[in-house]
Amino acid sequence: MKYYDKLIFELSKEGRTGYTLPENGIAEYSIKDIPSDLGRAQEAELPEVSELDVARHYTNVSNMNFGVETGFYPLGSCTMKYNPKINDEISGLPAFTSLHPFQSEDSIQGALEVYYNLAKSLSEISGLAEYTLNPYAGSHGELVGLMIMRQYHMKRGDTKRTKVIVPDSAHGTNPASAAVCGLEIVEVKSNDKGTINVADLEPLLDDTIAGIMMTNPNTLGIFETEILEIAKLVHDAGGLLYYDGANLNPLLGKCRPGDMGFDIMHINLHKTFSTPHGGGGPGSGPVGVCAKLVDYLPNPRVKKDDDRFYLENGENSLGSISSFLGNFSVYLRAYVYILTLGKEKLKYVGPLATLNANYIKESLKDYYYLPIEGLCKHEFVFDGLLDKSTGVTTLDVAKRLLDYGFHAPTIYFPLLFHQSIMIEPVETESLDTLDSFIEIMKKVAIEAKEDPETVKNAPYSTPVRRLDETTAAKKPLIKYKD
């Protein structure tokens, strides 16, 4: 009997799954078991190719992809850091990959210990009381955090608090998550320094405000220096502070959102704590809360009694927000990452990321327009080329970078500037890589001035040339032949 069939067979005998197998434990299926309305009327039209052709096809397709191991990946607000191979190796151990979600607590004590210890580590790093690791992504974590915010006000009978303040520099998921949660979005303006305008914030704070969502440092890569004043104003008005953890990387080991006054936060575990991500996954968005909100965390929660770990459901909880306990493989990678660096080395992550970002910014500000001067943290934003007379756009610059082997930065975001180029180099990049990127960015700026048409028609060396993006979005080719 195969391992998984045997496992499901044993569990089904205990009545703990919806699966049923014959007494010999071997699953047998027949074409007759497929409902007639799900069967094909004719054979699927599939290409007839040899194994060698298939192997070559997918090998060549993989070579066309770009990743962190291929070259520099300076996507702003994405924290595309290198994921050490030991993280993948540990997460792929059979002792972890062979676990089944229907196993008993006694048979998954090691997995529960990883969950418990990682949650405790995140609490120490962020300054919040307790975490749930159950959310599958940062956006999912945002939704869960806002649900906790709503639950807190509803339980207190404060039903008028149906609005959330969101800065104009916020990530797009912030207002989207609030809307999905049934909350009304109130925008607060930024000042000329790129931070929240406290004078604009104060009039917005009344008894209808549930809280404020903030990223610190914000999307411009600028630290909100008035955060303690903002926290006091929001708390005095009866609201809560939500921390969008997308930009947590530059704070590691230096300061903690909980100490700034934040009550709820999500962490993009796959970004800050090193899991390969992109293309929709894998992700994880743990949510941490201050002491007064712990009872609202979703079920189940992992608890410890002496040396035994167990699952517990709370009465005031939101209930279940994901299947079982979330994305366990990402937990393993994050846990190994934290243990490998340790407390002493983790504190270098933020300063190195900040140093790299400022090095690139200062090296390029004579070629690209820097709308806000001063020290940035992990990322920064240019507003297109310094010389606007060329007619070369941010999109053109991004396309031209592909010809030189660099992935383009985040473009046209944040929306505060018309030609935004948001660059985040992360701490894992070498000085040689940064210097190469700076050299090419300068070269593209010079090309834009001396030969703008070359930049406007890039790329030239990629598998396909520049596409009609509108048509590609509206009429994608998804079949191998028409």
List keywords for this structure.
482 residues, alpha/beta, Aspartate Aminotransferase, domain 2, Aspartate Aminotransferase, domain 1, 3 domains, 3-stranded antiparallel sheet, disordered N terminus
Q: What is the strand and helix layout of this fold?
A:
Elements: H1 3-13, H2 51-64, H3 85-91, H4 94-97, H5 109-126, E1 130-132, H6 138-155, E2 163-167, H7 173-180, E3 184-188, H8 198-201, E4 209-214, H9 227-236, E5 240-245, H10 257-260, E6 264-267, H11 269-272, E7 287-289, E8 301-305, E9 308-312, H12 328-346, H13 349-364, E10 380-383, H14 394-403, E11 410-411, E12 420-423, H15 431-450, H16 452-456, H17 469-474
Parallel strand pairs: 2-3, 2-4, 4-5, 5-6
Antiparallel strand pairs: 1-7, 6-7, 8-9, 10-12, 11-12
In short:
By secondary structure, this protein is an alpha/beta fold.
Written account of the structure:
With 482 residues, this protein is an alpha/beta fold. It has three domains: 1-35, no CATH class; 91-345, Type I PLP-dependent aspartate aminotransferase-like (Major domain) (Aspartate Aminotransferase, domain 2, 3-Layer(aba) Sandwich); 349-468, Aspartate Aminotransferase, domain 1. It has 17 helices and twelve strands. The strands form three sheets. It has a seven-stranded mixed sheet with strand order 1-7-6-5-4-2-3, sandwiched between helices. Strands 10-12-11 form a three-stranded antiparallel sheet, covered by helices on one side. Helix 9 (227-236) links the parallel strand 4 (209-214) and strand 5. The radius of gyration is 25 Å and the shape is globular.
